[in-house]
Design goal:
Largest sheet: 7 strands, mixed
Distance between the termini: 46 Å
Shape: globular
Strand order of the largest sheet: 6-5-4-7-8-11-10
Strand content: 15-25%
Number of helices: 10
Number of strands: 11
Helix content: 25-40%
């Protein structure tokens, strides 16, 4: 921690209020050189990089081996997940060998980040990477397409037969009220100007359509424990870290209504944070250490129970009438 924290001049990108110094971090994942200052808004609590980097600098934060750009295959769903989707999320066209009552019961605690189905529905995934999620949603019956700014990831998607716009969402020029669902999974934290981003999503969504967001939770138990070593900090690529409160504040500011917001954790997050704390590559990786894996599961259960998981999952609806 810096003993003489710098003054913060840049106002909060969510509520435009003043902020204080939070911490200075380094890239612990890909080793992008330099130190990066983060501020904390004194009104809404958002954590953001200050000063906010320019587009060319942001692009330099992403190496070609950045994990989301890698090609992937459609997710294989087991019988239980199919049953939950069928009975809880309106995927009535899916076959399941399990009785419906099992799916309904399981849906109370499993696969709670599923997206409700719309027959003949159009889905747009912003920041679709290598296309794994889009292929998975096509498999479930969606008319799915994506937006991606990385050229190699776009080529990977198109080789799989996916319809992809190469560039930023704002330049795709979709017609108003085009999509039933717009997803942005671990994207909004990479966006320097989230207000214009959500305004564009609102424009392209049909009335009654939903926006689905996933993003790290700045109020996570893991962030409190690990501080600058918390894996989802992902300095410098994560420009803004949100809490459930200020994420909803931003969405509602642009006309959305909150439908569902919850937090989740996975063992991967806490195990990677442990490794950062231990100095990266020094010693045996935590994922190969049995007692750490066991402790990580206890952490996941505790964080989920108190709703301070490492990831926010949120669904917002565009009202039928503006």
């Amino acid at each position: 921690m810096n003993n003489q924290p710098p003054g913060i001049r840049q106002r909060c990108p969510i509520c435009n209020q003043s902020a204080k110094y939070s911490y200075t971090g380094k890239d612990l994942l890909h080793g992008v050189p330099g130190e990066f200052i983060y501020a904390e808004c004194m009104t809404c609590g958002a954590i953001y990089q200050a000063p906010m980097p320019k587009p060319d600098q942001i692009a330099s934060f992403y190496p070609d081996q950045y994990d989301p750009y890698r090609p992937g295959k459609a997710k294989e769903r087991n019988f239980l997940e199919k049953s939950v989707l069928r009975t809880t999320y309106d995927y009535h066209h899916l076959d399941s060998i399990l009785p419906d009552w099992i799916g309904k019961q399981a849906g109370m605690f499993a696969y709670r980040d599923s997206i409700p189905f719309t027959e003949n529905g159009r889905l747009l995934d912003v920041g679709c990477g290598g296309g794994k999620f889009l292929l998975s949603m096509q498999q479930l019956g969606w008319q799915a397409e994506g937006v991606e700014f990385n050229k190699s990831a776009v080529q990977t998607c198109r080789q799989s037969g996916l319809k992809i716009f190469h560039g930023e969402l704002s330049r795709a020029s979709y017609v108003d009220n085009s999509f039933d669902v717009v997803t942005a999974r671990h994207v909004i934290e990479h966006i320097a100007e989230p207000s214009s981003f959500l305004a564009e999503i609102y424009r392209v969504l049909k009335p009654g359509g939903i926006m689905v967001l996933k993003t790290p939770n700045s109020h996570a138990l893991g962030r409190k424990w690990f501080g600058t070593n918390w894996f989802p900090n992902d300095v410098p690529r994560h420009l803004i870290l949100y809490s459930p409160v200020n994420l909803s504040l931003l969405a509602e500011k642009h006309g959305f209504c909150e439908k569902n917001i919850q937090t989740f954790s996975t063992p991967k997050c806490i195990l990677n944070s442990w490794d950062y704390m231990r100095g990266g590559q020094q010693g045996r990786p935590s994922k190969k250490c049995k007692w750490r894996r066991i402790l990580a599961r206890f952490y996941v259960a505790a964080a989920n129970f108190i709703d301070r998981g490492d990831e926010i999952f949120a669904i917002y609806e565009k009202p039928l009438r503006s």
